[in-house]
Amino acid sequence: MEELSAAEAEPEDAETAASDPESPVIATRALTKRYRGGQLAVDGLDLTVPAGSVFGFLGPNGSGKTTTIRMLMGLIEPTSGTARVLGRPMPRASRAVLPHVGALIEGPAPYGFLSGRDNLLRYDSADPTADPRTRSARVAAALDRVGLTAAGGKKAKAYSLGMKQRLGLAAALLRPRRLLVLDEPTNGLDPQGMREIRSLVRELASDGTTVFLSSHLLDEIEQVCTHAAVMARGRLITQGAVRDLAAGARGRLVVTTPDVTDAARVLKEQGVADVTVAEGRVTGEPPERELADVNAALVTAGVRVRGFGVERASLEDAFVALTGEGFDVAG
Ligand SMILES: Nc1ncnc2c1ncn2[C@@H]1O[C@H](COP(=O)(O)OP(=O)(O)OP(=O)(O)O)[C@@H](O)[C@H]1O
């Protein structure tokens, strides 16, 4: 904590708008990146990440997420448009901003021949602003934070991918951070590893740290994030509170019945659009009319109705409704 208050006292830092809790932690305006080969990777992006949010940056592979993150972190220059992080322009203010940002971008790459603890000690000593006298306490706290205290003495080459990912997070957490940027933090992990990283993200966020994480997994965003932005082909499709995004899409009417053919016919007669038949289930867009009448029509037609209702819309429904295409993770 001492380090943070010392850094905060610097006049350069006093300018950061992050001292205003209401101002967005990330704000981009018309942010655009065209690579030299001509590829338009990010196209006119207006992104607003509220302070304290767990913000999911969602999109299929190749939709421009990594390119955006690299611009936010000052690693590459935008072709046009602006990006502000903690209230300061990037990449210009990188030196003032980046000490407050923990990032896990390229995936974990610890030295295998060093223990997890020694990797962190080495990483910390590469930071000229880190006080060597408090180094071992800082490393111990970071290991504890990610649940690697017991494994801290093991060589990193013996770590599972999930443990390496947690070690990467520990490195990002050596200093107090206002923002954590995680690019596909659960990519390649098994379900248990995914659960661990997700609960760690929730825990970090509960301390008030803003977390910006990219993912191509819709259910991950629904499970972990308070807010999300959806990208497709370099463009922003929508952004906002996850709750509102899903609510924007209408749910599906679902009828469970052994008589799927008759049920599908009756639903169409009742004005249900986009009727789809699956094993023991017929679904469609909920009609404007009274649902009880639709149900009664099914029963009158002799359809044996085992279940009838509207399923809550998911973020996936919202994505499909907004883009008119499926969420193709293979991109
Ligand atoms: N250095 C580069 N030079 C040229 N084109 C690039 C470069 N990096 C990325 N691209 C292209 O820009 C587009 C967006 O890529 P980007 O990596 O930002 O997407 P992404 O959403 O992060 O996908 P992924 O999850 O696969 O990394 C893609 O079409 C990609 O091929």
Describe the fold and architecture:
The protein has 331 residues and is of the alpha/beta class. It contains 13 helices and 15 strands. The strands form 3 sheets. The protein has a 6-stranded mixed beta sheet, sandwiched between helices. Strands 1, 2, 3, 5 and 6 form a 5-stranded antiparallel beta sheet that branches. It has a 4-stranded antiparallel beta sheet with strand order 13-14-12-15, covered by helices on one side. Helix 5 crosses helix 6 (135-145) and helix 5 (116-125) packs parallel to helix 7. It is elongated, with a radius of gyration of 24 Å. Residues 1-18 have low confidence and may be disordered. The structure holds adenosine-5'-triphosphate.
Bound molecules: adenosine-5'-triphosphate
The proportion of strand residues reads 15-25%
- Stretches where pLDDT is under 50 for at least 5 consecutive residues are 1-18
Order of helices and strands: HHEEEEHEEHEHHHEHEHEEHEHEEHEH
Helical run tally? 13
Find the count of extended strands (DSSP E, 2+ residues): 15
| Structural class assignment | alpha/beta
Separation of the first and last Cα atoms:
43 Å
The strand order across the widest sheet is 7-8-9-4-10-11
Mean model confidence by pLDDT: 85
Give a topology summary:
Layout: H1 2-8, H2 11-14, E1 26-34, E2 40-45, E3 48-49, E4 54-58, H3 65-72, E5 80-85, E6 88-90, H4 94-97, E7 101-104, H5 116-125, H6 135-145, H7 161-172, E8 179-183, H8 191-206, E9 210-215, H9 218-224, E10 227-232, E11 235-241, H10 242-248, E12 252-256, H11 260-269, E13 273-278, E14 281-285, H12 291-300, E15 307-311, H13 315-323
Parallel strand pairs: 4-9, 4-10, 7-8, 8-9
Antiparallel strand pairs: 1-2, 1-3, 1-5, 5-6, 10-11, 12-14, 12-15, 13-14
The site of adenosine-5'-triphosphate has 13 residues, from helix 3.
GO molecular function, one term: ATP binding
Protein name: ABC transporter ATP-binding protein
Domain ABC transporter: 26-258
